[in-house]
Amino acid sequence: MPIPLKYHKKYDSLTADEEKLLEINKKSISDFVEQSSTTSDVNYATRNAHAKTYAVATGKLLIAQNIPEELKPFFDQPAYDLTVRFSNAHLKITRGKKDIPAYGFAVKIKDENGDLIANYPLVNFPLFPINSVSTFLKLFTSVNRFFVKKWSSFSLLLQILKVIPSTFTASFLKHIITLWNKRNDFFLSFDFHSVGVYRLGDCMIKIKLKPQSVDRNFGKKIKVKDALEGYLAAYDFKADVLVQICYDLDHQPVNQLNVEWKKSPYVKIGEVKIDKNSLLDPKACENEMLSFNPFESKPLFQPVGKIQRLRNQAYKVSMQTRTKINKLLKYQ
Predict the structure, then answer these.
(1) Helix H segments across the chain?
(2) DSSP 3-state of 12
(3) Alpha-carbon distance 62 to 41, whole Å?
(4) Are the beta carbons of 36 and 148 closer than 8 angstroms?
(5) Got the DSSP string for 101-156?
(6) Angle (nearest 5°) at CA 127 between 5 and 191
(7) pLDDT tens digits, residue range 49-62?
(8) What pLDDT does residue 1 have?
(9) Calpha distance 27→265 (Å, rounded)
(10) How many angstroms separate the Cα of 322 from the Cα of each of 30, 141, 288, 296, 306?
(11) pTM of the model
(12) Distance of alpha carbon 64 from alpha carbon 66, whole angstroms
């Protein structure tokens, strides 16, 4: 078996120019969240991504008994408690329209004492179209400013055009076609992915959640939220938790997110199980205000990579602004 490539902080480092763009982006996030209650026509400040909550539920992470010996030290309990948020990636909460099939499956893992071990915001598309930090920050900033009406749609279009070339990889085009063919499928029939890289001790991994025996046609003629709530009220949900390990950067690049990892087989480490009738009230303040910042995880489970590094500040600014605004709005 090949030797895993060890994590090094060099994979996360940003240039001085990128740090400056990040500060500009943080201001745009704050501005967006401050106006988000008006943008989405709700009585609270929303997230600046994955604003729409479909459902929140409790569950369990059940560790497989036959995981490789080198991975066992990271999972010293047979089961861990989960809080799961199901969401849509759109920045704005929409009503009465068909949602784009860009879904989030965010997982909070805690030990038997209720202490946080890790947050994993997973999505149903395994790749990310941008490798350049500066391109991503400029695009994200222009999107935020577009919604708060400080920039024109023409400026946003220019930033989008810069991204398009990086989508022309075989991996990316293949998954675009797959998503298009599955666009009407049931939420829980999708695989969910970490997209970026995470630490597992000194190793670096990607994560995949693969549902077991979920009917892709379930609730096809009703809204996503209603279908999801109906399924979780009537059935148990199970999904395999799989990881790929980074062995060399040529086949498993850390900072090239628009291509699949090759020559690294998936290893099953356990199962996610959500028992039926485990739904929580998604409108309750404590559930809407949940944070899934992966940088709140214990150090040995935190994200790796330049694009991932940006998420830390984005999550923090979004959460700080949401907390401030929602206290003023008395959202409870």
Answers:
(1) 16-40, 133-147, 153-163, 170-181, 224-234, 285-288, 306-328
(2) helix
(3) 39
(4) no
(5) S-EEEEEEEE-TTS-EEEEEEEES----S---HHHHHHHHHHHHHHHTTSS-HHHH
(6) 100
(7) 999 999 999 999 99
(8) 66
(9) 41
(10) 9, 18, 10, 17, 25
(11) 0.94
(12) 6
Say yes or no to pLDDT of 138 above 70: yes
Mean pLDDT within 297-307 = 96
The amino acid occupying position 103 is: Y
Six token digits for residue 85: 């948020």
pLDDT digit string (tens) for 181-225? Answer: 999 999 999 999 998 999 999 999 999 999 999 999 999 889 999
Which amino acid does the sequence have at 77? Q
Length of the chain: 332
The position carrying tokens 């999801």 is 228
> Which amino acid makes up residue 142?
S
Q: Encode pLDDT of 144-191 as tens digits.
A: 988 887 656 777 888 888 888 888 899 999 999 999 999 999 999 999
What residues have CB less than 8 Å from 67, skipping those under 6 apart? 75, 267, 268, 269, 270
